Amino acid sequence: MTQQSEPAPSTAAAPGPAGVPTPPPPAPPLAAPRPLAERRVWPRTFHDRLTAPLPGLKATARFAREGAVRPGREGLADIPRLPVEPGPLPRAGAGDIAVTWAGHASWIVRIGGLTVLTDPVWSRRILGTPARITPVGVPWDALPPVDAVVISHNHYDHLDAPTLRRLPRDTPVFVPAGLGRWFHRRRFTVVTELDWWEAAELNGVRFDCVPAHHWSKRTLTDTCRSLWGGWVLTAPDGRRVYFAGDTGYGHWFTRIGRRHPGIDLALLPIGAYDPRWWLSDVHCDPEEAVRAAQDLGARRMAPMHWGTFVLSAEPVLEPLTRVRAAWEKAGLPREDLWDLPVGASRVLTARPPRRPAATTAPRHA
Length: 365
Description:
The structure is a single chain. The protein is an alpha/beta fold. 16% of the residues lie in helices and 17% in strands. It has a 7-stranded mixed sheet. It has a 6-stranded mixed sheet with strand order 7-8-9-10-11-12, covered by helices on one side. The protein is globular. The relative contact order is 0.18.
């Protein structure tokens, strides 16, 4: 049985006595972690989780007539200016959180003493797109032992079979519901499938599967046969990293932020958005990504899903310039926008232990 998705929250608080708005109801408690590698039965389709209808014949015909999947010559001219600064992975203690952008939606996240890969794509080319326009930020041989992998959905630019074949088959993998069979066929042995709002734990780090505004498809016959989603990784000390995967803008960000307050870092997509009429339901543009970070209540944002593969028609450098402008317009601290070059890293050091409150001896009369 699958867990039912929640209805979209109201955007306005209900009026209370004397017209005073009442606060929204408290978020439901987090689910208890499920066992790792639990075998489960899922429905045949997840079409009911779509937050927008998939394009029909009319939209497909329009796209074939006037759509564009690549920028023009001027839009590609800035490829040499794309920021690429590969460097060694930073040192990170067990209590630190470190993120390194390998490109697109692939991150090396070190949290709670674990090394976690998100949507790892180390291939030079993926099906149906030109070769990557920037190199992989971290050579595969430079990675530390990989403790876990999280996958957002099954599109080829997020689920890359040649990359995953490089991993030991006992690597723990966390995937949305229905995607486990893809890994079992490839002899992965520790595959944990989760529905939205479900979680599992590995060595004290909690992995929560959360909703996304997207869809899934890998072949001509498997549209929405597996779920799609993002992930909230929570360290033993309570600090959180949100990996959005691939998503459009919508109500789920507010709901995720309420369930997981105090997100320290949100990894959010900012690219593959043009033409807007075709892609707005499934891909955030830079301004929407900044709004999503605010909806989440995230303390910091790191942009991703741009500057790696040419998937749509916007100029290759435009996502970066627009996200910086949107961040500044929102009045957010510049140091909290982690607009990393490909291959670069940032570290959140461990929280210092709390000092016991000082006490004073009572005075005697």
